[in-house]
């Protein structure tokens, strides 16, 4: 019992379940309970990964997928933040823009794929455009909400102390909204990978989605599974990055302070 | 109280304030000489906080005008600082950086000096979230005084503190006021606090000044018979009691 509680409390505890799943998966595959034509074993997937890494193709694919993801994130996040800020600070802008934006928000952006292909063809622009759309709304909504929910008492205090314009923004409004904005960033990172996966499986000539679709044509199930795992790892990495950002920017917040 | 210090003179001339149909202040007339400590008391909803917000420039009077050293109050003036009931510290700034907001040009040494005045120089690097209520209010006081205000407005700043901390804070405010000689206007519902701190207590009732007494007690003030006399005088007036039915154990409303 002592050993068990020690394991549960160790810092590697979150890794236990994934490792267990991989081991069981390997055993089931090796014992022939799951046919390798349905699901290749983890070792086979790892082998495929090694050979793709050796040829350099794997890194090239990850590179081009990441580039799309982050360019889209920067553009969509930037626009979302700017509009959230504008609508948060100005009632006029909010009345003019917010209801239209809410209307567009309720259209699933992946439903636009046929339209996007006609507009932009199947090049980079189409994929980045979809990522921009996917990332925009979480950032927009949470920036707006963050600014709207700043304690009006703090803003009044800042006015008594002569803070206006840029100073008011720097000392009060942005730091007050940042925890909400970071929630938006985490959602947006999830949407970013999701959108990219779909966009890349439809049409691409590089990237992880392309790798998976290409492999399907040759029935290389090991590579397909590898692609799925890479997506999972990339998603986890960006979530960790967002968490680190929270710890850095919200040091003052008792809920986020390092324990 | 003579006006040798940095205090500002405040003139309130026939000021009325109306919110919608409701008249909150009706022709208030007040002359506060430089360096005086004035306490405004009254039941809740009598308009005392509104008067303070008008003086601060946070609201505009419907009628009449307010003069600060002969120039009209319009918007928030640089020489005026305000202490709110909740400390209103920015939780994302360490104490010293909160105080720096009150310092012209954000001079850190001045902010530390102000924190030292309120006895919190050792907490300069802490987040406001880890301080107690009294400590937060002291940081807010340091922030208000760091800019060397000519007029300090206090909007029930001690209302949320426990009784012992409140007495500490009263002594601190009195000490700093005696040192710096700014003009101070304190809004409170606690008559004991008003008599302990102020040179002059003003009672507002239904938007008009109902009572204006000078507290002619020596400082530091002891809670003795003379103190009780003033406290009873004001309380009886607030509660509309005749002398025959008063009960001296009532301390605050």
Question: Mind explaining what this structure looks like?
Answer:
Chain A has helices at residues 2-9, 13-30, 42-54, 57-89, 91-105, 113-120, 124-148, 152-160, 165-202, 208-217, 221-249. With 259 residues, chain A is an all-alpha fold. Chain A has one domain: Orthogonal Bundle (MetI-like fold). In chain A, helix 4 packs across helix 5 (91-105). The model of chain A has no long low-confidence stretch (mean pLDDT 89). By secondary structure, chain B is an alpha/beta fold. Chain B has a domain at 90-148. Chain B contains seven helices and ten strands. Chain B has helices at 48-56, 95-100, 108-117, 133-146, 163-180, 191-197, 225-239; strands at 10-19, 22-32, 37-41, 63-68, 71-72, 80-83, 151-155, 183-187, 200-205, 208-214. In chain B, the strands form two sheets. Chain B has a six-stranded mixed beta sheet with strand order 6-7-8-3-9-10, sandwiched between helices. In chain B, strands 2-1-4-5 form a four-stranded antiparallel beta sheet, with helices on one face. In chain B, helix 3 (108-117) packs across helix 4. Classes of the chains: A mainly alpha (259), B alpha/beta (253). Chain A binds chain B through residues 151, 153-154, 156-163, 171-172, 175-176, 178, 251-254, and chain B through 56, 58, 76, 78, 80-82, 84, 86, 88, 90-94, 101-102, 127-129, 143, 147.
How would you summarize this macromolecular structure in one to three sentences?
Chain A is mainly alpha-helical and 259 residues long.
Keywords:
heterodimer; A: 259 residues; mainly alpha; MetI-like fold; 11 helices; 0% strand; flat; B: 253 residues; alpha/beta; 6-stranded mixed beta sheet; 4-stranded antiparallel beta sheet; 10 strands; globular
């Amino acid at each position: 019992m002592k050993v068990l509680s020690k394991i549960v409390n160790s810092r590697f505890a979150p890794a236990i379940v994934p490792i267990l799943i991989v081991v069981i998966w390997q055993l089931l595959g090796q014992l022939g309970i799951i046919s390798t034509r349905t699901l290749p074993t983890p070792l086979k997937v790892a082998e495929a990964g090694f050979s793709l890494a050796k040829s350099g193709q794997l890194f090239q694919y990850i590179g081009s997928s990441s580039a799309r993801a982050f360019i889209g994130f920067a553009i969509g996040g930037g626009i979302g933040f700017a509009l959230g800020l504008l609508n948060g600070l100005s009632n006029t802008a909010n009345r003019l823009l917010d209801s239209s934006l809410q209307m567009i928000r309720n259209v699933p952006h992946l439903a636009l794929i046929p339209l996007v292909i006609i507009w932009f063809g199947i090049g980079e622009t189409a994929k980045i455009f979809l990522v921009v759309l996917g990332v925009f709304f979480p950032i927009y909504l949470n920036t707006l909400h963050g600014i709207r929910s700043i304690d009006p008492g703090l803003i009044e205090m800042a006015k008594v102390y002569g803070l206006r314009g840029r100073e008011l923004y720097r000392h009060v409004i942005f730091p007050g909204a940042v925890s909400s904005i970071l929630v938006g960033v985490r959602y947006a990172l999830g949407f970013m990978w999701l959108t990219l996966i779909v966009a890349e499986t439809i049409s691409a000539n590089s990237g992880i989605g392309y790798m998976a679709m290409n492999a399907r044509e040759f029935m290389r199930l090991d590579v397909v599974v590898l692609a799925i795992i890479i997506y999972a790892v990339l998603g986890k990495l960006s979530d960790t990055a967002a968490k680190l950002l929270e710890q850095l920017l919200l040091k003052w917040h008792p809920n986020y302070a390092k324990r | 109280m003579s006006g040798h210090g940095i205090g500002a003179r405040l003139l309130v001339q026939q000021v009325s304030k109306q919110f919608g149909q409701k008249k909150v202040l009706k022709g208030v007339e007040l002359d506060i000489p430089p360096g005086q400590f004035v306490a405004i008391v009254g039941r809740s909803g009598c308009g005392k906080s509104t008067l303070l917000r008008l003086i601060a420039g946070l609201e505009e009077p419907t009628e009449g005008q307010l003069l600060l050293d002969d120039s009209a109050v319009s918007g928030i003036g640089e020489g005026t600082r305000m202490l709110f009931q909740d400390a209103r510290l920015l939780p994302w700034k360490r104490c010293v950086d909160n105080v720096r907001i009150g310092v012209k040009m954000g001079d850190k040494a001045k902010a530390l000096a102000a924190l030292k005045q309120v006895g919190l120089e050792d907490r300069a690097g802490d987040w406001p979230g880890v301080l107690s209520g009294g400590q937060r209010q002291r940081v807010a006081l340091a922030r208000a005084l760091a800019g060397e205000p000519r007029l300090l407005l206090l909007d029930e700043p001690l209302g949320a503190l426990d009784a012992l901390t409140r007495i500490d804070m009263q002594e601190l405010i009195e000490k700093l006021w005696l040192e710096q000689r700014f003009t101070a206007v304190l809004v409170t519902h606690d008559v004991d606090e008003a008599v302990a701190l102020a040179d002059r207590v003003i009672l507002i009732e239904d938007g008009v000044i109902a009572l204006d007494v000078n507290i002619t007690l020596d400082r530091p003030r002891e809670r003795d018979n003379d103190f009780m006399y003033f406290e009873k005088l004001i309380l009886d007036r607030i509660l509309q009691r005749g002398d025959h039915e008063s009960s001296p154990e009532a301390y605050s409303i």
